[in-house]
Design goal:
The protein is α+β, with helices and mostly antiparallel strands and 192 residues long. 14% of the residues lie in helices and 33% in strands.
Length: 192
């Protein structure tokens, strides 16, 4: 028997022996962080979907084969850093199909007030291949009172795939036209 300590999975919080296994959330079991299962697909489309019947998946249990489907975001989050108001910036993200068959996806565009837009080519992505998502931001200093200051933009871009719903966190700090990075650093140095 393995070494059993006070924080072992064999015991519950009261110190009693567990009667059943610890149930882990699906987001921990998955290699895709922040991904939620697309329940609508599993209820409506999955039962009538054509399956892959290649040698690599023959004989495997169906649960294992289903875990071999889906997308992965590289990088998993986008941070634009400090931007100048009135300029447009683009950051490229790879959406990689880590599954064994082709999959489709669609992106829910962020609201126009964020200044964000995702540029992409719609269509299926073959197994092992990737597609480029260009996250574009038109820098608008949201939340600035008066002529100068800095604003912050933060949004989770929703990517709906056949198997999962992925969220791509996007953040940016935007300086108004009257504040340059040099004057901002000078003001911060005065306060410290």
């Amino acid at each position: 028997m393995p070494q059993v300590g006070p924080r072992s999975l064999y015991f519950d919080v009261t110190g009693d022996l567990r009667t059943e296994k610890v149930k882990l959330p699906s987001c921990i079991k998955s290699s895709k962080t922040g991904a939620l299962p697309n329940s609508q697909f599993y209820e409506v489309e999955d039962p009538v979907r054509r399956r892959v019947h290649t040698v690599s998946v023959t004989g495997g249990d169906q649960d294992h084969v289903e875990s071999l489907r889906g997308f992965e975001l590289l990088p998993p989050q986008v941070s634009f850093g400090v931007l100048q108001e009135g300029c447009t910036y683009i950051y490229s993200v790879l959406l990689k199909n880590v599954g064994i068959d082709s999959c489709r996806y669609k992106i829910k565009q962020p609201p126009p007030s964020t200044g964000l837009r995702v540029l992409y080519q719609p269509g299926p992505v073959a197994a092992g291949m990737n597609t480029v998502l260009d996250v574009e931001i038109f820098a608008v200093a949201v939340g600035v009172v008066g002529e100068s200051g800095s604003g912050h933009v933060g949004h989770h871009v929703e990517i709906v795939t056949e198997t999962d719903i992925l969220y791509l966190p996007v953040t940016a700090n935007i300086l108004s036209n009257f504040v340059t990075p040099v004057t901002l650093a000078y003001k911060q140095a005065l306060h410290h």
